[in-house]
Amino acid sequence: MTEVDVTAMKKSLYFTTIFLFIFGLAMTSPAALLSDNFNTENGGVGVLNYAGFSNWNVSNGTVDLIGNGFFDFFPANVLYVDLDGSTGDAGILTTKNSYTFNNGTNYQLSFDLAGSQRGSTETVNITLGSLIIDSKTLSSSDPFTTFTYFFTGDGSSAALSFSNVGGDDLGALLDNVNLDVVQGVPEPATLLLVGGGLISLVGLRRKIRK
Fold it and tell me: What are the residue boundaries of the structural domains of the chain, listed by start?
């Protein structure tokens, strides 16, 4: 084999390797539809009964924007949301956008929830439109825990909502909400199927924040 042939083969292998590397990233990396840690809300300052969110509407009650030194139970999280505001009526936090979940496309939803840290047990319903994805019950002292769900779209459109059950001014805490398109195929054990107007939970992966 000539030196020219060897050089050409090396170049071919090099570009093939680069292509496969980039292709692999494209098949596995999520593309964000929504990514919100609430840290820039209200100029980075906590406030009770906040309704000026960039990505969310508050209905049927109120929520509080807390943290960053204001009623701050988790300083490392900067700002986050108390899902039961200070009016005795827990609000519903719903995305301003409705997202279209393309038929056959895989999606990933993740968010952090913590207990109220004030002696109460709280339940939060997580919904896409009228469909309940899950209902999480948290003890008061539960730390922020990341919950992750995978699902496959069926062509429908829906907004994402978080609703704290009850209205005693003590709510579960929400942070780091992410909704992504997943280019690769999720693990079968963590697939949330959306179809025919029903959601069937096959499994979920929960990651505890260290």
Answer: 31-208
Amino acid at 207: K
Both tokens of 165, joined, read 């059950």
Helix, strand, coil share of the chain (percent; to 5): 15, 45, 40
What one-character DSSP code corresponds to residue 126?
Answer: E
Amino acid identity at 116: S
- Cα separation, 25 vs 23, in Å, equals 5
Pick the closest to residue 100 from 36, 25, 179, 190 (CA basis).
179
pTM of the entire structure? Answer: 0.78
* Contact criterion met (CB below 8 Å) for 144 and 202: no
Q: Could you count the other beta carbons within 10 Å of the beta carbon of residue 1? A: 7
- Residues 68 and 78 sit within 8 Å (Cβ to Cβ): yes
Strands 191-195 and 145-152: parallel
CATH second-level architecture of 31-208?
Sandwich (2.60)
Which pLDDT tens digit goes with each residue over 174-209? 999 999 999 866 555 444 545 434 343 333 333 333
Largest CA distance in the chain: 82
- Give the residues across from 205 on adjacent strands: 148
